[in-house]
Amino acid sequence: MYSPLRHTGSILSKGQALQLTFFVTRKCNARCPFCFYIDNTSNAKASEAELSLDEIKKISASMGNLLWLAFSGGEPYLRKDLVEISKIFYDQNKPVFMLFPSNGLLPELIKDKTEQILKYCKKSVVTVKLSLDGLHGDHDALRDTEGCFDKTMQTYQQLGELLEQYENFELGINTVFCSENQHKMDEIIDFVQGLTKIKTHTISMVRGNLADSHFKDVDDEKYRRAIARLENNLKNRTSSLYRFRGARLKAAQDIVQRRLIHQTLHEQKRLIPCYAGKLNLVLTETGEVYPCEILSTSFGNVKDHNYNMKEIVRSEKALPVLDSIYNKHCYCTHECYFITNILFNPRLYPALAREYVQI
Hints:
The protein is an alpha/beta fold. It has 14 helices and 9 strands.
């Protein structure tokens, strides 16, 4: 397996992006009202605007080795060439971790594409996170998609069959924490604990500019209680760890991360340095490049910079965006960015060590 240790130099330098979030499509077959990125129509224009494989290959070639490659959308599995895209990044960027979040609405297709990726990307940890925001009809109602819960459970069963065949496969559940389900976190956590093929359960705070902002009316005390349950489950070994080497460190990071997110919610300010635009980049399906998912000001389109990601982050347009991050101290609760903000910040290593020894 590719080793994350090759990225230790970035602890000091912060000179090269090692985490990429790639929104491969806007198309989605669910209608979640709390999503900030969807286009529920499968119109021709949406497909035509997507980067081609040749363009993606050029973009990938301009980047170095990656620690973390997260595909997003929309529903990533609706991108017909998702397997081919995965192979491009695997060959050229050798990601340690490859993440595929999914609403689970296409069981057979998701299993087939995931297995193709697993067979080819043998040295990367391939993680599929299925979305589960409630039980049965609650999940369907929250995602405004009839039959969503049953389809997700079918996908869980089908993907579970791959665990014994592929050592580099991780299967997890992600729950979006929002105003509509925050009072039912206990029953969701209990249910996920009973899913024997699930190795990890993450809870992601609702984020972004939403059409209906009431979904962000969350109670930070309810979030604190939910993450305390996840922490206790890990420390009491009633929840499984990831199977990859270094799983205890990742679990310790999860605990520190959730506490920081709760504190950020409570204090409404940034608590630790953010490496968005330095260690982390976001690429959209049309080629726009952002330092993170939350900010609405882009570095520009990579097509206008010879498909070169290193060039665009040094462009005149990128510099004021980076200054706005580091000087104005914006803040957010985006879990994926907390990963690098914690793991590449030596000041947080004592906190990580304390949690590590308790797991």
